[in-house]
UniProtKB/TrEMBL annotation:
Keywords: Repeat, WD repeat. Transmembrane segments: none annotated. It comes from the Eukaryota. Belongs to the WD repeat EIPR1 family. This is EIPR1-like beta-propeller domain-containing protein. WD repeats lie at residues 249-281. Residues 5-281 form the EIPR1-like beta-propeller domain. InterPro entries: Beta-prop_EIPR1-like, EIPR1, WD40/YVTN_repeat-like_dom_sf, WD40_repeat_dom_sf, WD40_rpt. One of its GO terms (biological process) is protein ubiquitination.
Length: 382
């Protein structure tokens, strides 16, 4: 199924960017952070807000960042706090920052650096915050190790609590923190996915022989994860039964780089890749399913789960994120699942962030959040 996009473009970034993150803790507004990736210029972090009244993107703050930003995550319980992974000519680093009070001034004051995660000796890949509210722990991953930190933002301190070594595993690339269990994460390598127990820093079950680019836990159902892979598009797995995936969704013609569940309707999944395509899927699975998908060649297949494919882009797409805030409009509530697409405009040297409203639906407030009132598959296809 093909579909065009009705996008809103933000042209405020001067340099190319690779990172964007939704600010989940910003109650009552749809806000996100974007970080630039310039080798020679001083980089920037933009605080961008979607204004539903004017249907436009507004820059609420622009902050200078000393190095190229390769990973950016917003703190889930404090809208002014975020982390970055960055590189200079001398190596990689990671820090946690705080956005200063703006008070409506036109020139944004400098970011406040709360603390650095400076125990790494390898190439830092990402920082993970536990996604469900306040937690005094933070995870950082480099190409050989996983660190669990105890953080205290008020005292501007971070201390290593546990460290796990990848041993003979090839090249850690990133991971995802289990929203159902703060003692468990899934970490991906060039050729495998391993679940880790953060109490012992030991590996448990694993998926082998696949080149993973991204992983996301199902936000509603325990034990279910989704992976983005080079050769197979995206796959849905039950961590208790890893012989076969629950579903294969091979909807990309090149590397699949990112995958995210909708936080409210977990059957709705976004994937993005270097084939310049964003796919919207409806993949219904549950922990009470009879079992994983049959091996290749099985005659039993469900109906096509691809709801829409957005292909009107020229460049690779490296990131997508979900927005869970509900925007009130009189007696209706609007819930948006957004895709952010970034590319470098060589003529204007600007980054354009196109927000694609791939899922828009309305429910009367008296019926919200009764999701049984509407079928997400019907809603998403509109």
């Amino acid at each position: 199924m093909q579909g065009g996009s009705s996008g809103i473009v933000y042209g405020g970034l001067k340099y190319q960017a690779r990172c964007i993150a939704d600010v989940r803790a910003a109650a009552g507004s749809t806000t996100f952070l974007a970080g630039t990736l310039s080798l020679k210029e001083e980089n920037e972090v933009h605080l961008i807000r979607f204004s539903p009244a004017e249907s436009e993107l507004v820059c609420d703050g622009l902050f200078y960042h000393p190095n190229e930003i390769w990973d950016l995550k917003s703190c889930p319980f404090d809208h002014r706090v975020f982390s970055t992974v960055y590189t200079s000519g001398e190596g990689y680093g990671a820090s946690v920052w705080k956005i200063p009070e703006l008070h409506g001034q036109s020139n944004s004051p400098p970011l406040e650096q709360l603390f650095t995660l400076d125990e790494h000796t390898g190439k830092i890949r990402c920082v993970l915050w536990w996604p469900l509210g306040k937690h005094d722990k933070l995870i950082s991953i480099d190409d050989r190790n996983i660190f669990l930190w105890n953080i205290d933002a008020s005292n501007k301190s971070a201390k290593v609590m546990q460290k796990g070594s990848a041993d003979m595993l090839p090249n850690l690339r990133g991971g995802s923190w289990d929203p159902h269990d703060h003692n468990s994460i899934a970490a991906i390598t060039d050729s495998s996915l391993h679940c880790w127990d953060l109490r012992s820093m030991k590996k448990s079950n694993a998926i082998e022989h696949a080149h993973f680019r991204d992983v996301d836990y199902n936000p509603k159902k325990q034990h279910l994860i989704t992976t983005a892979e080079d050769e197979f598009g995206i796959r849905l797995w039950d961590l208790r039964m890893l012989k076969y995936p629950l579903k294969n969704l091979p909807g990309h013609s090149h590397w699949t780089w990112a995958v995210r569940h909708n936080p409210e309707h977990d059957q709705l999944i976004l994937s993005a890749g270097t084939d310049s395509t964003v796919n919207l899927w409806f993949a219904k699975v549950g922990t009470d399913d009879s079992g994983p998908e049959s091996p290749p060649g099985s005659p039993t297949r469900e109906e096509e789960p691809l709801l829409n494919s957005y292909t009107d882009y020229e460049d690779s797409i490296y990131g997508c994120f979900r927005i869970s805030q509900a925007l009130l409009a009189e007696k209706m509530k609007l819930h948006v699942l957004s895709v952010v697409r970034a590319h470098n405009s060589t003529s204007l040297l600007k980054l354009l962030l196109a927000i694609l409203y791939t899922v828009l639906w309305y429910m009367e407030l008296m019926r919200w959040p009764d999701s049984t009132a509407c079928d997400p598959r019907t809603i998403a296809s509109q």
